[in-house]
Amino acid sequence: MSSVNSTGSSHPPTFFLLGIPGLEKEQFWIAFPFCIMYVIALLGNIILLIVIKTESSLHEPMYLFLAMLAFTDLVLSTSVLPKMLATFWRGSGEIGFISCLVQLFFVHNFTTVESGVLMAMALDRYFAICHPLRYSSILSMPMVAALGSLVLLRGVLMVSPACFLLRRKAFCQHRVISHSYCEHMAVVKLVCEDTRVNAAYGLFVVFTVSVFDLTVIAVSYTMILRVVLKLSASNTRLKAFNTCVSHVCVMLIFYVSGLFTFLTHRFGHSIPQQIHILVANLYLLLPPTLNPIIYGLRTKQLRDKIVVFFQQRGI
Predict the structure, then answer these.
(1) Residues of the chain with pLDDT under 70
(2) Got the DSSP string for 25-66?
(3) Model confidence pLDDT, tens digit, residues 101-133
(4) How far apart are CA 159 and CA 161, in angstroms?
(5) Buried b / exposed e along 67-90 (16+ C-beta atoms within 10 A)
């Protein structure tokens, strides 16, 4: 039975998340590595946040942006994994209409925020390497806070209209979402009205965010590479390369899986649906799992502080 709101639009009170279509039996076992990755993501990012907060020597723009990334990863993974695991293990795929929209908002808002934080981290490395004498004056604490706030505000302003558009649509009686979480286009497919505006706005958000952020990232690292190659001291050059490699690894994991998910959902009709859903799940889980590992291992100052953190607790 549909419920009707004051605007005349109708929607079912609940949806049902199918999980991974075609792998309904296997997803019980698929949930175990997903659960392990989620635990690693929780522990890794919480440890990063605690270490950065408690160590005053890490209160620098690079580590503050890393703390923003860790917080974003925690929210992103937690917004989908608990419900996904319940669907995989217990078949508890039912989710309320409003809860589905809230999950959709958090997923797409914080993927947008993560892209913005990665862009801010690229700018941070650009100013640190290309303009070291002006670095502290350009990226002051107020500026770091302002960048973080703008990135969050951008996500909220760009994703909220997609949720409001869906809220006003009339949905068909078919309420099964062929996905593991409430992804925008997966929910749009259940609408009985014309959805061209929804689809067009989704494309606009993805292309606006990805093109702008990737352009800034590409220009920043091109300028960094030019400066690094001109450095005469091999130790300084190696240190700069090591720092940048960590950032590039994180960005590749996020953008490659994200663009694959987006493009296959809209254009890759020949790709099996279970492959698309698996990659979409990994898109939300791999970055939160690997980011703290990559930065914890490759950033010496942070690695040393983490070792001290464990030693103080007798671990």
Answers:
(1) 1-9, 232-237, 239-240, 243, 265-269, 314-315
(2) TTHHHHHHHHHHHHHHHHHHHHHHHHHHHH-GGG-SHHHHHH
(3) 999 999 999 999 999 999 999 999 899 888 888
(4) 6
(5) bbbbbbbbbbbbbbbebbbbbbee
φ/ψ of 203, rounded to 5, equals -65, -40
The continuous run of DSSP H or E covering 10 comes out as strand 10-11
Q: Are 114 and 155 in contact (CB under 8 A)?
A: no
**Residue in the block written with tokens 């209209």:** 161
Whole-angstrom distance, CA of residue 79 vs CA of residue 95: 13
Q: Which two tokens stand for residue 172?
A: 């068909």
Contact 93, 19 (CB under 8 A): yes
Strands 3-4 and 10-11, bridge-based pairing: antiparallel
Rounded CA-CA distance 170/164 in Å is 12
* Burial readout 190-203 (b: 16 or more C-beta within 10 A, e: otherwise): bbeeebeebeebbe
Alpha helices (H) in the chain, listed in sequence order: 27-54, 61-90, 97-130, 135-138, 141-167, 184-188, 196-230, 234-266, 273-298, 300-312
